Structure formats: C-alpha cells, structure tokens
C-alpha cells in the first residue's frame, strides 16, 4: 500500500511546487472536506520548513455545517494560514440572485459568482482545488492545470495537452488556471492517506446521531432551519455520517456506524454506491449536471 | 502495492471502450449507481458509456478527449488513459503515451492489422513505452479461430521497433469477457496469460543509466535568512555535505540541509520530493539543475551536458501549422526559454509509416518531424530513450499561450 501512496504524494507535491513556481498569487480553495484537507496537508509538506506560499480561500454559502467552520478555524490557527472568506450572501444581494427553489433551497450553483469575484478582487492567477478525476465523468477529462477563460468557463474541447509532468500555466490577464493536485487519487486513496498521515477531519465524517429530514428515495439530509418543510415531511433522529462535505442543502447523509477511519475504509470498500451517487443531490439534476456547471465556472 | 499507468489505443470501432468497461466490470470497479446509468432497457450494458463522459461524445458516440479511469485489484492500482482512435487525434495518443508504463493496442480480429494499428505501435515505440500488449479483439465474431489470431501474430513479428519492449499478444472478446479478467473456455488453444494477469504481474524495468544524482529546481523560497530550493530528485541519492554542481552556471556548492516530505533528513533518494539549502549563497533560479559531481560518465555513452543546439523529434498539436522561422517558447519541465527551428530534416509519413526527406510542405496538426532546434538558454539534455526527464519538452505559442507541440531529444 505504502508504495503507491508515496508515488501519488510525490506527484501531488510536484504539482503544488509547479504552481508556486509559475504563478504570482495562488489560493487553495478550502471547503473543509476531506479532499481539500488532503491538499492543504500536502501543501504544508511540500513547502516545509517554509510557510506555504498560497492563501486559503473559503467560499462561504451560509449553508455550512457548523462543525466544518469550527474545523476550518482550528486549522488556520494551527498552521497560521492566511484565510480569506467570501460570502455567497453578498453575491446574492449584489446580483439579485435567487436560490434554487424548492423545499431545500440550494446555493450551490451560486458559488461560481462569488468565486469569480474573489479571483478578480484578490488578483488570483491560480486556484488549487481538491477535485479528483474518479469522482464524476466530466471530471475524468479534466487537466491537472485546467485553463479557464476570463468568464471562468471550462471548454473541454480546447484543453491544453498535458505531457509527461510538464505543466503549461501561461495565461493572459483575467484568465485563470485551476490546479488539481490530487486528480489521480481515488476516494479510497484519500482515506488511506488520511489514516497514514493522521490528518484531522471535521467530526461529521464519523458516525453520530443527527436530526435528519427525508429528501427522497432513501436520502436523508441534516435538518436545517432554512428548509421549507411541511407537516408531511419526515424528521427522524438517525445514526449517520457524511461521505462528502458540501452544503447542508445538497449533501446527503449515509446511515453508518463507522466511528473511525478503519471502519470508514471498510464501509467504502464494501458499499456498491459511488461517492457522489450516494451523497450529492446536485449531480442528480441531469445526466450532465457536473459538466454544465463546470462549463459555467463552477469548480 | 504498485501504481501502473497504461493507455488503450485502437481504431474507432475496435471495441476499446468495451474492453475498458469489461476490465472495470469484471474486476468489480463499477458501483451500482453508475452501472444503472449505462444499462440499456433490454438489460445489456453499454460499456462505452463508462468512458464517454462529455455531452458531445455521447451525442456523437465518439471519444473526443483522453479520459482517465481508475481501478484497483488486490495487487495493484491502475490508471487508464483512454485515447480516442481517430486519425486526427494522434495528439491524444502521444499525450497518453507520455505517462504510460504499458500500451494496450486493440486489433479487430475481423479486420486484422490496419494502418492505424501500425501508427499506434509506432507512437508507442517512439515514446518508449516499455510494454506493449496487443489485444486481438472480437474473437467471438471469428468463431474463436486460431488461424485468425496466428496470422496477426505473424504480422506483428515482422514489425520493426526502435526501442526495446516487452511484447504480448492476447486473443480476447471484450464483449463476452474472454481472456480479459477471466480465462476463456472458448479459446482453449491459447495458453498465455489473460490481460489482467499481465497488467498485475508486469514489472517495469528500472532504467539503469549511469547518471549523477540530480534535481531540477522548481521553486525558490527566501525565509529566515535562508534560501530553500525545492524539487524532485530524479536520479540517485543526495546527502548532507555532498558536493554538487549547479547547471547552467557550473558553479560548485555543498548541500547544507535536506528536507524530505516535511522532515529534516540526512539523505534523500530517487523520486522523492525534497527541499534543501546550500553552504554558499549563490543565485539559483527556477529551472536550474543541481547534480552530484560526475566522474564516472563515459561521454560517448551518455551526455549529461548543456546544449544550445540539439536534434529532436517533434509532434505538432495545433490547428495553426508550425512556422519554422517563428520563435516559440520551449518548456523543459520547470525551465522556459525561447526556441527557434534551424532546419526540418524529415517528416513522418502517416501512410507509409516512414520518415522521409522534408519537402517544405506545411507542418500541420498531428505532424511528426525531425528537426534541429536552437534554444536561447542552454539546456541540460539527454537522449529521450536514455532519460525521459532530460529528453522531453513542450512547445508553447508565445502569443496564444497554447501548448502547440512537444518533442523528444534524439542523438545528433
């Protein structure tokens, strides 16, 4: 096991150092999820014993799990990170945006506005994210250095060929590169690495009792007071954990008794449902939900 | 457990996506919800849907871009780069080949070896992929006839290769799963390994070229009155107090401190991402090389040297043709410099599959050509076959910033 994790780790560190070497100002996009925690951990190792040459950017939808915000602030303190938070709430007011209507109003798609504004305001030429190619079929075609035009758009047909480990990060003013250092990791790789490196995670990844509301076929969301519920909605206390961490409104819980990393690894190995399939309401909208959002500037 | 990267190449209808789908399916790498979205109404599975990710690909039933797929068995973790088969997508194959330990080339048993098969073989050879596996697919359609397979084996044995490879030829039916993961009862005349067995057991040969230990500087950081140099050790070992030479300045220096993966260390080994400080404060930029002093190198055998002028085989990727008199950027891993073409000597003919003398025709997308290049800064280079890290580069357009080509260093 160790062998290939070392190989993945060295590859990711190489990418992070290329990012530091090629860009004027880069930010790690931090969601508090396990993937961005892994990227942050890799960055700290990559630049040891110096401070990481990136800022940390959190696009706050206002629909976070409180545990995740607490976790974020602990990390910032521990590693003395330069954290910038930008709020989707402000974009909603500025651009008169509306949330996805329905029982569980989602701000997921609105993050693009806040992110693009932040890129401009903070003069970022690169944003580093924890997306992985195994997550979703549109992402499987993504480059490590992924070019975005001045509108933040991804054009899968106009991607720069990537050969060997040579990354072309040249851009004009207003354009941006999204960097994905853990592109080649799978969900299980991330968990093995978290275990090996003892990376702390938000508590919601582990089994806990939670008030949940039924959101469809066997899907349960953590209860939040901004949901528009009726008397017919089923609210129950469940023993759950979260397999991915996104907004409360679009990240479903999975029923689980896994209280430590070994149990989680065992659970993922035996489950027959993919990571996003189990937990993401936002991908279910259409066959090409992710591709459409990526083209529009989503991460 | 090892990580193995492989590419799959073949003609449009050779069943490449079906083969990948079969490999993933029979090794239990596909989850139920994803299977659900690729099931036909009649219950059969469209394996191609597992690899064709983009809207346009599904609509047109073709693969446009390289798709990366992941699966693990108990023995290994695999990364597949699925390269589209059209003639116009040679660039994708070269891109995929640059990362690959193994090339799987599909041959349609009903059609035999085609020109495209030979092109894919040539590219795999040129890119020095150490192991090439030919899968003779659709054996079910030819009634698992041994003579069909044997004819193809005979043809492959006449192929001429530039580099050394391990070569295997397997009769399969991706559709029915014969010899992909499970051994086939339909092909009892074949005693060789299944595809998965080969993937799981192939041992990449370590390239034992007698080279100094070296790294390219990716990033320099000045903190706490100290200059830190970051890079990956590409060969050999580094130790504290070791004497090193800086390229291209050729200054001598000594390693003061070493850091490996977040820890101070007295020694670093090949392929590790490292950081170091030096005894004497000298100017070192991104793209410079640090190497142990090499006394054992036979210069006729291997040149660990700086070059301004060199020979290369280049691949052209852009829709705008290559203009020999134009200045381009050349990126040699972490070093970017200008490059100009002195002459183009030969152009690869995709029909005859041979290099022929260059007759000043335009260098279009997918062209492969031999050329003499001159760089603005001296580069630390080596023949690509001997050392891929020192022998590969990309070409970038100075105004559009697009990656328009790539190349490998060959002997003069």
If strands are numbered along the chain, what order do they take across the biggest sheet of chain A?
3-2-1-4-6-5
Number of strands of chain A: 10
- Helix count of chain A equals 9
**CATH H-level homologous superfamily name of the largest domain in chain A:** HUPs
Question: What's the short story on this structure?
Answer:
The complex is a heterodimer of chains A (299) and B (412). Chain A is of the alpha/beta class and 299 residues long.
Structural account:
The complex is a heterodimer of chains A (299) and B (412). Chain A is of the alpha/beta class and 299 residues long. Chain A has two domains: 2-194 and 288-295, HUPs (Rossmann fold); 202-283, no CATH class. In chain A, 33% of the residues lie in helices and 17% in strands. Chain A has helices at 2-22, 34-46, 66-79, 88-95, 111-121, 187-197, 261-270, 275-279, 289-295; strands at 26-29, 55-60, 83-87, 126-128, 145-148, 176-179, 208-216, 219-222, 235-242, 252-255. In chain A, the strands form two sheets. A six-stranded mixed sheet of chain A has the order 3-2-1-4-6-5, with helices on both faces. In chain A, strands 7-8-10-9 form a four-stranded antiparallel barrel. Chain B is of the alpha+beta class. Chain B has eight helices and 23 strands. In chain B, strand 4, helix 6 and strand 5 (131-137) form a beta-alpha-beta unit. Chain B is globular. The mean pLDDT of chain B is 88. The chains are: A alpha/beta (299), B alpha+beta (412). Chains A and B meet through helix 1 and helix 2 of A and helix 2, helix 4, strand 2, strand 3 and helix 5 of B.
Layout of helices and strands:
The complex is a heterodimer of chains A (299) and B (412).
Chain A: H1 2-22, E1 26-29, H2 34-46, E2 55-60, H3 66-79, E3 83-87, H4 88-95, H5 111-121, E4 126-128, E5 145-148, E6 176-179, H6 187-197, E7 208-216, E8 219-222, E9 235-242, E10 252-255, H7 261-270, H8 275-279, H9 289-295
Helix pairs in contact in A: 1-2, 6-7
Chain B: E1 2-9, H1 16-26, H2 32-38, H3 48-51, H4 55-60, E2 67-72, E3 76-82, H5 90-97, E4 102-108, H6 115-126, E5 131-137, H7 146-156, E6 166-171, H8 195-201, E7 214-216, E8 219-223, E9 226-235, E10 238-239, E11 243-247, E12 252-260, E13 263-265, E14 267-268, E15 273-278, E16 289-292, E17 305-316, E18 328-332, E19 335-349, E20 354-357, E21 368-381, E22 392-396, E23 403-410
Parallel strand pairs in B: 1-3, 1-4, 4-5, 5-6
Antiparallel strand pairs in B: 2-3, 7-9, 7-16, 8-9, 9-15, 10-14, 11-12, 11-16, 12-13, 12-15, 17-21, 17-23, 18-19, 18-22, 19-20, 19-21, 22-23
């Amino acid at each position: 096991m160790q062998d290939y994790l070392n190989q993945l780790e060295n590859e990711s560190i190489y990418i992070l150092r290329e990012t530091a070497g090629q860009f004027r100002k880069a930010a790690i996009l931090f969601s508090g999820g396990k993937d961005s925690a892994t990227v942050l951990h890799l960055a700290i190792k990559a630049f040891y014993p110096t401070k990481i040459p990136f800022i940390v950017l959190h696009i706050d939808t206002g629909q976070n799990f409180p545990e995740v915000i607490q976790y974020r602030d602990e990390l910032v303190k521990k590693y003395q990170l330069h954290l910038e938070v930008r709020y989707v709430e402000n974009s909603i007011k500025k651009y008169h945006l509306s949330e996805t209507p329905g029982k569980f109003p989602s701000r997921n798609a609105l993050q693009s506005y806040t992110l693009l504004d932040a890129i401009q305001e903070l003069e970022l030429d690169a944003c580093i994210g924890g997306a992985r190619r195994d997550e979703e079929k549109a992402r499987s075609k993504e480059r490590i250095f992924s070019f975005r035009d001045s509108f933040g758009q991804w054009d899968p047909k106009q991607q720069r060929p990537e050969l060997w480990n040579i990354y072309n990060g040249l851009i004009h003013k207003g354009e941006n590169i999204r960097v994905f250092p853990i592109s080649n990791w799978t969900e299980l790789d991330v968990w093995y690495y978290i275990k090996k490196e003892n990376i702390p995670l938000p508590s919601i990844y582990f089994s806990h009792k939670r008030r949940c509301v039924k959101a469809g076929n066997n899907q349960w969301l953590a209860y939040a007071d901004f949901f528009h519920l009726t008397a017919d909605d089923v609210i129950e206390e469940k023993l759950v954990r979260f397999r991915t961490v996104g907004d409360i409104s679009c990240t479903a819980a999975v029923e689980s008794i896994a209280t430590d990393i070994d149990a989680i690894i065992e659970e993922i190995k035996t489950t027959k449902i993919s990571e996003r399939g189990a937990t993401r309401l936002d991908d279910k909208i259409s066959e090409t939900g992710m591709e459409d959002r990526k083209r529009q500037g989503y991460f | 457990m090892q990580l193995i990267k492989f590419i799959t190449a073949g003609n449009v209808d050779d069943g490449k996506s079906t083969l990948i789908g079969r490999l993933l399916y029979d090794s239990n790498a596909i989850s139920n919800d994803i299977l659900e979205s690729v099931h036909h109404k009649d219950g059969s599975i469209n394996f191609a849907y597992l690899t064709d990710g983009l809207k346009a690909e599904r609509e047109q039933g073709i693969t446009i871009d390289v798709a990366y797929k992941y699966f693990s068995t108990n023995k290994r973790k695999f990364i597949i780069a699925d390269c589209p088969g059209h003639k116009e997508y040679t660039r994708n194959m070269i891109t995929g080949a640059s990362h690959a330990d193994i090339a799987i080339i599909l041959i349609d048993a009903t059609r035999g070896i085609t020109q495209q098969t030979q092109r894919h073989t040539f590219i795999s050879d040129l890119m020095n992929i150490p192991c090439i596996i030919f899968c003779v697919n659709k054996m079910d359609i030819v009634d698992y006839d041994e003579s069909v397979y044997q004819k193809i084996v005979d043809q492959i044995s006449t192929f001429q290769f530039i580099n050394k490879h391990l070569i295997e030829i397997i009769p399969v039916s991706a559709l029915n799963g014969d010899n992909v993961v499970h051994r086939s009862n339909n092909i009892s005349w074949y005693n060789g390994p299944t595809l998965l067995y080969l993937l799981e057991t192939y041992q990449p040969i370590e390239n034992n070229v007698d080279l100094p230990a070296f790294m390219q500087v990716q990033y320099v950081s000045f903190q706490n009155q100290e200059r830190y140099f970051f890079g990956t050790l590409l060969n050999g070992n580094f130790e504290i107090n070791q004497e090193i030479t800086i390229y291209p300045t050729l200054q001598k220096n000594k390693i003061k401190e070493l850091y490996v993966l977040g820890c101070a260390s007295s020694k670093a080994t090949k392929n590790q991402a490292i950081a170091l400080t030096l005894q004497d404060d000298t100017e070192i930029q991104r793209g410079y090389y640090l190497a142990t002093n090499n006394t054992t190198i036979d210069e006729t055998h291997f040149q660990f040297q700086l070059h301004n002028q060199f020979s290369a085989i280049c691949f052209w990727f852009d829709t705008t043709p290559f203009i020999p008199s134009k200045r381009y950027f050349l990126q040699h891993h972490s070093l970017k410099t200008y490059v100009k073409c002195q002459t183009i000597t030969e152009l690869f003919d995709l029909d005859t599959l041979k290099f022929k003398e260059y007759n000043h025709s335009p260098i279009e997308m997918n062209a492969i050509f031999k050329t003499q290049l001159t760089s603005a800064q001296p580069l630390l280079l080596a023949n690509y076959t001997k050392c891929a890290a020192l022998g590969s580069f990309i070409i970038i357009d100075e105004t559009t910033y697009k990656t328009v080509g790539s190349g490998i260093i060959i002997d003069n």
